[in-house]
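User: I'm putting together a teaching handout on how multi-component assemblies are represented. Below are the sequence lines for each component of a complex, exactly as they appear in our records. Could you produce the 3D structure of the whole assembly as structure tokens, so the students can see both representations side by side? Please keep the chain order the same as the input.
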Amino acid sequence: MAELFPILAVETSGALCSVALCLDGKNFVELNYLQKHIHSQKLIDMIDTVLKTSAVELNQIKSIAVSMGPGSFTGLRIGLSAAKGIAFGAALPIIPVPTFDAFAHQIAEYLPDQSRFAIAVGANIEESYFTRYIKKENKVETLEELKLIKKNNLENLVKPDEKVYGNIGNSTALNMVNSPTAKAIGEWAYLYGQDLLTFDQDYLEPNYFKKFIVRAKR
Amino acid sequence: MNVLGIESSCDETSVAVISEGRLISNLISSQDFHTNYGGVVPELSSRAHLQILLPLVKQSLAQAGITLNQIDLVTATAGPGLIGALLVGLSFAKGFAYSIKKPFIPVNHIEGHIFSGFLMEEKPEFPYLCLVVSGGHTLLLLVESETEIKKLGTTIDDAAGEAFDKISKLLGFGYPGGPKIQEAALNQRTDFVDFPIAQCKNEFDFSFSGLKTSVLRFIQKEYGDASKIPNEHLPSIAASFQYSAVRALVVNTDKALRKYKTNSISLVGGVAANKMLRDEFQKLAGKYKKKLVIPSAEFCGDNGAMIAYRGSQLHQAGIKYSFDFNAFPSLSDHTFIK
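Assistant: Of course. Below is the structure of the complete assembly, with chains in the same order as your input.
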């Protein structure tokens, strides 16, 4: 197995712009900036800050973990484009990380074993991403594949006692949080994503998930 | 000094390498699928940029025969353009420059066009009069130095290229309008219809919205609607429109040449590929005995070479930029044009 650490992790799928350096399976440095439309401006400086703070040189990094979505199309492209640029310049592999799986991993940290929970995050005005997970022996497993639902249908989908995380409807514990932080992206890469590690980055693309339909203008 | 230039502002992804002032690679990948939609779809454009950018950078470096550690400067278009598209090239360039520890210069796309004449063997001489004509911009400028650009006039509504696109669509020729209209208008009567040339408050400003409307009114009056135009009239209408659009550009340039002292004239941007416009500028150059520089077709459309060139100009002028420089949608945001 190739050495993965330190892992530089980037999360730009939502309003949160997050960068982490996972030094090993336990120690990390993370920097978060919650504000819309600052990702392109802040990302490189945040990466630089995280590296300087941990006294790690760029050439000591072994891999880059990138949040691949679904999420904001533009946000995802900012993160992946920058990651491709860095990876190309420094000859590093990229580990593409499914955003919701990393999110589930992060949420499950605070839940007891055998917990079942759902994640609902707004995709647009009408629709929401929806998925279910279970925590088993410290691993998170998908119970229900990610899908798009109508927001107003959420109440019919969830059971009365079911925990729903995200930023939609009756979500409770993590209200208004709609994406993981970069630490979770890096951890997921290490725990679940080693097979995804790749140097073949030419055609690496975000998971746009939703089919893009061009509406004719008349 | 090796300079990498990345362009991704609209529907062309382009990567270029300038080595010791000489252009050694300029690869352009055009997104032709937009023709299916009658115009550029921003989201699809952004996706395509991300798909092609890295392979194109690799290919360009291979063509230039240089390795990563031989690159001294990374430049990319930061605006104006489609934000989503710009962010792909800009974010990649920033990440790349950061990782190879080399300076990064964000380039104004229009300034790239303004200095694109310098990619030619015969270069413009300061001060020069520059007409920028593209799908998004129409600007008449007095370029006094690399950092002093005076705006004499601009369009108060549609850009020249936009007018070509719209009329082409109206006449059923499709997108992109410039080449389609030019093709249809070849060797046709330009006096079939006498379309007007707008007079603006500022003597150097342009307006193409009125011209567009008058084409539409003419069609409505003569034929009822565009679908009823007899096929044999279409080329003459296209030629008459093209003639008026070109005249509008030439008249203002002529006025500016009379008023301002210049050493050269430069015609740049996508619409500079138009044969009639090029011919008219030749006549102007002859009339005023000025050196005329029109970039070859490769440098008229969007290209990485002009971005690399403009970036190195700014770098040599000692101007520094930090990584928090953001993409910007409109010309007025970050420019030396005053």
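A couple of points students might notice: The longest helix of chain A spans residues 73-90. The beta strands of chain A are 7-11, 16-22, 28-34, 63-67, 94-97, 116-122, 127-136, 139-150, 163-166.
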